[in-house]
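Can't paste images in this forum, so I'm doing it all in text. The chain is below; anyone willing to post the predicted structure tokens underneath?
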Amino acid sequence: MKCRNCGAEVGLLDKVCPYCGSDNIESAGHRTKLDTYKKKSKETVERADRKYSSNKPLIAGSIILVFLIIGVIAMAIAEEKTEFMDLDIAHSETLKNVESFKATLNGYLEAGDYISFHDFFEGHHIYETDPEYEEYKLLLTLSYEYSSAMNSMEQLILFGDGYTSDKRSVIRMCRLDISSFYTRYGYAEDDLEGYKYREYAEDMKYKLDTAMKIYFGLDDKGLAEYLASSENKQALFIEEVVLGE
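Text version of the structure:
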């Protein structure tokens, strides 16, 4: 930019010409704008500082929360890995002690204690797919349904007065557990032909039939009619026995 008085080069922000001392009129507007920009910039920085200061606890809390979440996830992963390791160790024991474990299982079967038979399988993490225990596969499935049905009936009939929840829901669950055993047994009947442990499967059904007769006051005909009836009629029948309605 040139000085209007002497024509020398002057800077945009020079107040006067460095050569002739004349006022640099054109620079006045630029200096005013620059001062305005500086003022606005300072105000913006101050507002940002105030906003940051007011949000500092929230920011700190958010950072802490993130670290806590990361910690919980890390602990969950570590716990899951530990659980899998424990299961692997427990399962390896079942493979090392096949003969003694099978002797225990057969002892439960001979005693007709099918609930303990199933609980031993579960408690020792024996897999029905293990070749060493595959012979029990069908019996294990039936014993699971048998245990559920027996436990449901005993809790409902023997300890019915102690229920604090909706008794009708408990009755429906009991009906379902009973039905599940008889359904599963029906599916397995063809497989029971020539099955090594057939007598124990049949004994399970006999024991459940007997329990049904005792707990619900049924005879052979009444049991057959109950099993042939609809789900609603079965539930209503159990309600009548348990609730006296």
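The CA atoms of residues 59 and 78 lie 29 Å apart. The radius of gyration is 42 Å.
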